[in-house]
Amino acid sequence: MGLTLLAAGTSIPDTIVSVMVAREGKGDMAMSNIVGSNVFDMLCLGLPWFIKTAFVNPSSPVVVNSTGLVFTTCSLLVSILILFIATYINGWKLDRKLGAACLIIYIVFATLSILYELGIIGNNPIRSCGV
């Protein structure tokens, strides 16, 4: 729950700023803000685990009960690459067509991540929190 609120708390202001600068005709600034926000979110998710293993209890690893973490991280990196390719094909212009493409990419990413985490796709059975 905390990671979801952290991601939403950092992404919503970045989205608003990206929309504002895109309306001013600065599409390159909006794109760099979008990609920078995604990279920041991915890097900051590992910070609590680093602090736990480096300073709090260096002798024990942090157990992460997520079977889809590697899949989700790789999917995020692929979605950033697809975003750059789609923007390049669109002539580095942000318009409704690119916005629709980005929305579709996000829906596909979120759907695949949820299905993988739930064990519906892939070879990962669903595990409970205590196991």
Keyword list:
potassium transport, 131 residues, 0% strand, mainly alpha, single chain
* Bulk shape: globular
Largest sheet descriptor: none
Oligomer: single chain
Helix content: over 70%
**Helix-strand sequence:** HHHHH
Report the total helices. Answer: 5
Radius of gyration computed on alpha carbons:
17 Å
For the record, the count of structural domains works out to: 2
Strand content: under 5%
* SSE-based structural type: mainly alpha
Distance between the termini: 19 Å
Mean pLDDT: 74
Low-pLDDT ranges: none
Number of strands: 0
Catalytic activity: Ca(2+)(out) + K(+)(out) + 4 Na(+)(in) = Ca(2+)(in) + K(+)(in) + 4 Na(+)(out)
Organism: Silurus meridionalis
GO cellular component, one term: membrane
Subcellular location: Membrane
Can you describe what's shown?
The protein is mainly alpha-helical. The protein has five helices and no strands. It has helices at 2-23, 27-45, 47-56, 69-89, 96-117. Keywords: Antiport, Calcium, Calcium transport, Ion transport, Membrane, Potassium, Potassium transport, Signal, Sodium, Sodium transport, Symport, Transmembrane, Transmembrane helix, Transport. Its main location: membrane.
List the helices and strands and how they pair.
Blueprint: H1 2-23, H2 27-45, H3 47-56, H4 69-89, H5 96-117
Helix pairs in contact: 1-2, 4-5
Concise overview:
Keywords: Antiport, Calcium, Calcium transport, Ion transport, Membrane, Potassium, Potassium transport, Signal, Sodium, Sodium transport, Symport, Transmembrane, Transmembrane helix, Transport. This protein has 131 residues and is mostly helical.
